[in-house]
Amino acid sequence: MPNGGLVLSPNVTTTAHRDVIVALMGDPIADGLVASISRPGGNLTGLSTQSSDLIGKRIEILVEAFSGLRRLAIIANVGSPAAVREVGECQAIAGKLDLEVIASEIRQAEDIAPAFETLKTAPMRFILFLTRLRVRTAFASTHWR
User: Looking at residue 3, what is its pLDDT?
Assistant: First the structure.
């Protein structure tokens, strides 16, 4: 059972002789793993967070809940195709809501502290983490003892 953070080839879902079960994945359609959620076909099954579909709504709720919100920070694991898509979605919805987005890119847990240093130049109320679980876990075990 691969974690959604691992990369699956679309060929695996159509040519493998065994079923492929994914515990959690970002967007199987955008990743080319299935044709549609309602009729995926192939031999792939599992749960999808559909996170890129929901990121815009999350930002809209933040803006509604905290009037005067004009700036939003994003820390994104650019090693994850799902997180890269989410950054694009964030920037698109932020443009519609007249929000300034300040994005910091990370690839591993060691990149998080420098990302926060970069964000110190522009104080903000919220930071969205768009990462894989492994990076979040490594950060938490290092910084929240």
Answer: 41
